[in-house]
Design a protein that fits this description.
Layout: H1 3-35, H2 40-45, H3 51-61, H4 67-79, H5 94-128, H6 134-148, H7 151-165, H8 189-196, H9 199-236, H10 239-246, H11 251-263, H12 265-289, H13 294-303, H14 307-335
Length: 341
């Protein structure tokens, strides 16, 4: 089978498996939510509400139906792209909640990933290009420390130092309440500021993004540092690199024009895997920094036992991860001709 036919077969297989993966995730979430203790009706009416009123609300929400009936109703709604209605937000559709809160999460994730790539790739290159030196030891130590530090702990330490003690960065919001945010076009404050030419709002949005993005990006950067350092070291020992040195090509040109290009290929694969960690880290970051994003809203919904909101947000995140993984795999297959399927 030719490589092009094999790649087409692989892409078709991944596309066919995507709905199965999403169905598995939604089923697990559905069952776990109903296996954990607590009653969403208590979150709506309060634990001291009359039992007759609780039974009426439970019947209206369909929570009194058998579990299999609830599951079939849930799958039927998903097939119609209906994520349901929040139990605790006065009947607000889950899609509306996602549209309101996701832009803050997307902005946090985008800039955190940019910081992670910038720091991780830079430290990895510096460490791999100077083996056996303090830069190499420091790079290894950096990868270990960033992998081991809990995100919530680092976030709290950053807030304590840079916000509470030094007063350099704000806390608990996305934009100052004393300044009007940029005109809403996409929901991304930085992009909306650029589109409307509001440079003051752009600077303010970046200022409020700085600390949470630095916390999340710094810890994720260790993943890229290790990948770049290991692969670049192997590449620098390859035969074609030795041949380039023998021809008298400067070491800097060998590093940037020959070795680095091949060493960065695995980074494309890691990007897809990191996206899941990024969304999970975004939830912790948003809760730690009280960032008004979808991850923070998910945390609140879990506390309130808001079944439709929790299920809808997790399904939304699952679709993002599955689609991004497929795109990354296809892109990696086209970029790296050594891959065979």
């Amino acid at each position: 089978m030719s490589r092009s036919r094999a790649l087409q077969y692989y892409v078709a297989t991944r596309l066919l498996l995507a709905p199965l993966m999403i169905w598995t995730i939604t089923t697990v979430v559905f069952l776990l939510l109903r296996a954990t203790p607590g009653d969403p009706v208590d979150a709506i009416l309060g634990p001291r509400a009359p039992e007759a009123q609780k039974a009426l609300v439970r019947e209206q929400l369909g929570l009194g139906n058998p579990l299999w009936r609830q599951y079939l109703d849930y799958l039927g709604d998903l097939l119609h792209l209906d994520l349901g209605t929040s139990l605790t937000s006065r009947g607000q559709p889950v899609w509306s909640i996602i549209q309101s809160f996701f832009p803050a999460t997307a902005e946090l994730a985008t800039y955190s990933m940019a910081i992670a790539l910038l720091i991780g790739v830079s430290v990895g290159i510096l460490s791999a290009s100077r083996p056996g030196t303090l830069f190499d030891v420091g790079g290894r130590l950096f990868g270990i420390v960033t992998y081991a530090i809990p995100l919530f702990w680092l976030g709290m330490i950053f807030q304590l130092i840079f916000s509470v003690q030094l007063g350099w960065f704000p806390l608990g919001t996305r934009f100052p309440i004393t300044i009007d945010p940029p005109q809403t076009l996409t929901g991304l404050y930085t992009l909306d500021s650029l589109l409307t030419g509001n440079l003051r709002a752009l600077g303010m949005a970046l200022y409020y993004l700085a600390l949470p993005c630095l916390s999340l990006g710094l810890l994720l950067s260790g993943i890229f540092e290790r990948i770049v350092r290991v692969n670049l070291k192997q590449t620098l020992r390859a035969d074609y690199v030795e041949a380039a040195r023998a021809r008298g090509i400067p070491e800097r040109r060998i590093l940037l024009a020959h070795a680095l290009k091949n060493a960065l290929i695995p980074v494309i694969t890691v990007l897809g895997l990191t996206l899941a960690a990024l969304l999970g880290g975004a939830v912790l970051t948003e809760v730690t920094f009280s960032w008004p994003g979808l991850g923070n809203r998910l945390y609140e919904a879990i506390e309130l036992r808001d079944y439709p909101t929790v299920q809808g947000i997790i399904v939304f995140f699952a679709v993002i991860v599955v689609v991004a993984s497929i795109v990354i795999d296809i892109l990696n297959a086209y970029v790296d001709p050594r891959i065979r399927y």
